[in-house]
Amino acid sequence: MRVIKIQGSDDTPKVILDADNNTFEISGRSLPEDVVAFYDPILEWLDEYAQNPLEKTVFNFKLEYFNTASSKLLLDVLLKLEDMYDAGHDVLVKWHYPDDDEDMEEAGEEYADIVEVPFEQVSYSID
Amino acid sequence: MAGINKKESLDFVYDFYVKMKRNKINLAYEGEITHQITKAFTSLTETNMVREEDASSVQKKVFHVMVECLQNISKHAEVTPGSTDKKVGRGIFMVSKGDTEYNVTTGNVVLNEKVERLTEMLENINSQDKDGLNKLYKKQMREGHISEKGGAGLGFIDIARKTGEKLIYSFLKIDDLTSFFVLTSTISRIKE
Fold first, then answer.
1. Whole-angstrom Cα distance, residue A17 to residue A25?
2. Does A73 contact B146 at a Cβ distance shorter than 8 Å?
3. Among residues A4, A16, B35, B72, which is most buried (max CB within 10 A)?
4. Which CA distances in Å does A90 have to A81, A113, B25?
5. pLDDT tens track of chain A, all 127 residues?
6. Whether the predicted model's global pTM rises above the 0.80 cut
7. A127 touching chain B per CB within 8 A
8. How many CB pairs under 8 A join A and B?
9. ipTM greater than 0.95, yes or no?
10. Phi/psi at A26 (nearest 5 deg)?
11. A75 lies within 8 A of chain B by CB
12. Chain B partners of A33 at a C-beta cutoff of 8 Å?
C-alpha cells in the first residue's frame, strides 16, 4: 500500500502512514490554513487501509498544539479507527502529551470519551 | 497626504504611542488577517513570552487564544466593500500585557442580522461552567461540520474553557447594515 509521509511545518503536523513499516503517526502542530484540504487525503488513506489492515494497528498522536478546526478533523481520524475496531480489527490509539501540558492531556481524555476504541494516554517529558 | 495637517498627524502618532504605553498594548494591527499574518503575530508573541519567562502553560493559552481570534476574523469578518482581494477578513487585533494578565482583543465588522445569533451564542457560552463548556465542545465537535469557511464553530467555546474567564464583548452599531464586534479574552499570567 502507498505511503503518506508529510514533513511537519510550523502550521501543519508531521504525518506518517506506512503500513509496511507499521508506523501510523500524526505529530507536531496543526493549524493549517485549510484544514479540510490537509486532512482529506489522510482520511481517504485510512478508508483504503481499513479494507485490509495489519493484524494490529497502533496509531500515535503526539501533538504539541492543534486549533479547534483541526480538533474536529482529528476526531474524524479517530472515528475511522473506531470503525476499524468495530469491524473486528485490533486497534490501539496512543495519545502522547508533554507531562506539563494539562490541556493536551485533557484533550486526549476527551477523545477517549467520545470514541469507542482502545486508548492509551502516554506522558513524556520535554527535557 | 494632501489635505491632512502634518502637525496634527505627528501629534496623532505621539498620542497613539502614549495611549499604547498607558494601556500596555504590545501589539496593535488593523488590516487584512491572512494566514501569514496569523503565523507572524503568534510567533512574535511566542518569542516575547519566552523572553518574559512566562510559564509554558500561559504561553500555550495565549497562543491558542490568538490563533482562534485571528482565524475568527479571517473567516467571519465582513469584507469591507471595495476590497479588491478575495474574501480575506479584516479587523483590528491587539494584545496587551499587564502584570497579572494578557488581553487579546479583536474588532471586526459584522452584519446586523448576525448580531442576535452571535449574542445568543456568546451568552450561552458565558453561562456555562467548565463542565458545561466541555460538554458543549464535545457536542459541537461530534455534531458540527466544518463550514465552507473552514471553521468548526468551536473557537469561542474553546477560548472560554482554556482561559476560564468570561468572554467580554460588545456590538457597536455602524449603520443600518453593519455593526462593529469587539471581543476581549483574558489569560491570567499567574500560574495555577
1. 6
2. yes
3. B72
4. 10, 19, 53
5. 899 999 999 999 999 999 999 999 999 999 999 999 999 999 999 999 999 999 999 999 999 999 999 999 999 999 999 999 999 999 999 999 999 899 999 999 999 999 999 999 999 997 6
6. yes
7. no
8. 64
9. no
10. -130, 120
11. yes
12. 35, 150
Question: What domains appear along chain B, each with residue ranges and CATH number?
Answer: 27-188 (3.30.565.10)
Closest chain B CA to residue A101: B57
Contact A71/B at CB under 8 A: yes
Q: B86 falls in which pLDDT band (50, 70, 90)? A: low
Q: Where are the beta strands (DSSP E) in chain B?
A: 25-32, 90-97, 101-111, 168-173, 178-188
Nearest-angstrom CA–CA distance, B18 and B16:
5
Total count of domains within chain A:
1
Give the distance from residue B180's alpha carbon to the nearest chain A alpha carbon, in angstroms: 24
CATH number for A97: 3.30.750
The SS3 assignment for A23 reads: strand
A112 at B interface, C-beta within 8 A: no
Backbone φ, ψ for residue A46 (5° rounding): -65, -35
Of the candidates B35, B134, B154, the beta carbon closest to that of A68 is on B154
Residue in chain A lying closest to B64 (CA): A67
